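Recall from the previous lesson that a structure prediction takes nothing but the amino acid sequence as input. Here we apply that procedure to Secreted protein from Micromonospora zamorensis. The sequence below is the only information supplied.
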Amino acid sequence: MNTIIRKSMLSVAGLAFAGGVVAGPIAAHADPVDGKPVAVAVQSAAPKPQGEQSRITLNDEQTANVKAIIAATKKAGLPERAAVISIATSLQESKLENLGHLGDKNDHDSLGLFQQRPTSGWGTPEQITDPAYSTTAFLKGLQQVDGWQDMALTDAAQTVQVSAYPDAYAQWEQQATDLVGQYWNS
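The prediction returns the following tokens.
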């Protein structure tokens, strides 16, 4: 057996033993629910935000868009990290405002929370300006990125968005993390 597998097996066995030592006395006095084993989730710490962070005060529309992004993320069966990346991306692209065509301010046909373009295949203008649809489209793109869960936020967002300002997403990571923490379970 190679060393990595052996060490992994020993680590798992050690965690199982330690969990039994700690939970054993508590579990011995607990009423059985249905006799099925209970799964315990272990989460790693979220990556530390990169660089200087920005923050804006959200109005009701922006807060509703945060909730729509979280709902679409949950519906897709993705973890909180996907919602953090999505919200940070939308903060950078539109400040969480569902933007229509910006006319002379915009030389492209970018629309919605993520500034997606109909001519780039993101969907129709009506679809792109639907927060649930645009978030789902973004998440589908994110899922195509190998290792997105462990990437720096700005790298994951940039791989999906292909922005002219690839490092700009990072400044919104802390606020996005805070928003997901605030609204994920509400």
